[in-house]
Amino acid sequence: MTSLEHTPAAAAIARSGVAREAEAPSPRMVMRRRALTHPGFLFGATVMLLTIAVAIFAPLLTSYDPFAQELTQRLIPPVWSAKGSWAHVLGTDGLGRDYLTRLIYGARISLIVGFGAAGIAGLIGASLGLLGGYFGGRIDALVMYLVNVKLSMPGVLVALSLISVFGGSVPVVVTVLGLLFWDRFAVVTRSVTQQIRVNDYVTAAEAVGASRARIILGEILPNVMNHIIVIASLEMASAILVEAALSFLGLGIRPPTPSWGLMISEGRNFMFFQPYLVAIPGIAIFVLVIAINMLGDGVRDITAPEGRN
Amino acid sequence: MMRFLVHRLAISILVALTVSIIGFALLRLSGDLASALAGDTAKPEQIAQVAHLYGLDRPLYIQYLDWAAKALRGDLGRSLFSNEPVSFLIGQRIGVTAQLSFMALVFAIAIAIPLGVVAATKPNSWVDRAALGLSVFGQAMPNFWFGLILIIVFGVMLRWLPISGSDSFAHFILPTVTLGTAVMPAIMRLTRTGMLDALDSDYIRMARAKGLSSGSVLFKHALRNAVLPVVSLSAVSLGFLLGGSVIVESVFALNGIGFLAFQSILRTDFPVVQSIVVFVSFAYIFLTLLSDVINAYLDPRIRLG
Question: What is the pTM (predicted TM-score) of this model?
Answer without folding.
Answer: 0.86
